[in-house]
Amino acid sequence: MLDLQKLMGQMQGMSEQLQREAQQLTVKLDRAETIFYQAVVNQASLNQQSEQFRDRYIFNCAEPVEALSEIQAISPISTPHIVLATDGSQIAPSRHEIAYCYLINIGRVAIHYNSGIYPLLDNVPEVFYKTEDLYKARQWGIQTEQWMTFKRTVAENVALANLAIETLASSPKSPLLTFTDGALVHWEFDEIAAEARSQLLPDILAAWDELKARRIPLAGYISAPRAAETTNFLRLQICPFEQPDCKTHCGDAKPLDSAPCSQIQPLRDGTLWSRLLKVGECSPFWKSHARILQEYGEHQIYFCYLHVGTEIARIEMPAWTALDVELRSQALQIILAQVQKGYGYPVALAEAHNQAVVTGSDRRRFFAILEQQMVKSGLRNVTTSYKESRKRSSIA
């Protein structure tokens, strides 16, 4: 049991540190706002510089594809429409359980607004127990728990595309939005071997191909975003060097916090856009240049920041949604309506999470059923490890 009394002194020191950081952040935010309006004037040259010297930056910098001053007011949709969402959860493998396996559960939601059709709220569980599911990824230095998370990401996207195809067949005229909780730029895939990515990314891109072929918009909703891709673009405005080269001018030989462009770091995008946007307003769209996107083919990812009232959310869309004026507008209007209906967070995403989540009691029932099946199959001595048994019967 946690001794909160012993933590109180540390809490006070932490609070004082956060207060100092908040004051420093306000100063950097004021500075960043001034630099932003300077960048508005110099955007053409900054875009050219970004394209020409991108390989010399030590930071990831997005590219604005619209005028920086182009802030658009979004109105929530009020006509009949459909929102589809998926989310995933899992039971991680444990060597202390009766069998070494894992389970992925995908929550699915299809909500028909102003149509009188009952919503779909269900989940699709799948258990993985074969040798290739449990140990194959270790040849690439990936632990089973991490591989399970990657497989869940793939399953969420495949399930979403399949749900969209089914829904479109029954309601071909209603505006649709396929919705995911989190990024469409899968940064985590960039950290694993190319052969491992080849087991994951093609299935996601194939699912997106199905959506693109049917002109079904796709969006990823990121709450409390921590990216700095747009504030990194502002670093180009304050770089004093005619030819930027981070490693040469501001590399390891010098402390990075002394670099000229560090005066607005570590300012996050969401913090900056909270100063620039009003409720219901959307920032200009940006093209991400994350390295993993080199393997996305025609599904390049664009993003914007949307002031939904309770927060600044990052909205990511593939090119075929973001660059299509009709689909983009449809997606943003539905997203804003979702947040309003959900009192600060999209209804469909919250419900998909609720459908996907695996509770402690679900976990116990899962292993109880598994134990029954193993005994029925003739297996003997089916039990948990002594450690697990002792933890479950602790007298503390």
Offer a quick outline of the entry.
The protein is built from 14 helices and eleven strands. The protein is of the alpha+beta class and 396 residues long.
Could you please describe the fold and organization of this structure?
The chain has 396 residues and is α+β, with helices and mostly antiparallel strands. Helices cover 44% and strands 16% of the residues. It contains 14 helices and eleven strands. The protein has a nine-stranded mixed sheet with strand order 1-9-10-11-7-6-3-4-5. Strands 2-8 form a two-stranded antiparallel ribbon. Helix 1 (4-41) crosses helix 7 and helix 4 packs parallel to helix 6. The mean pLDDT is 90.
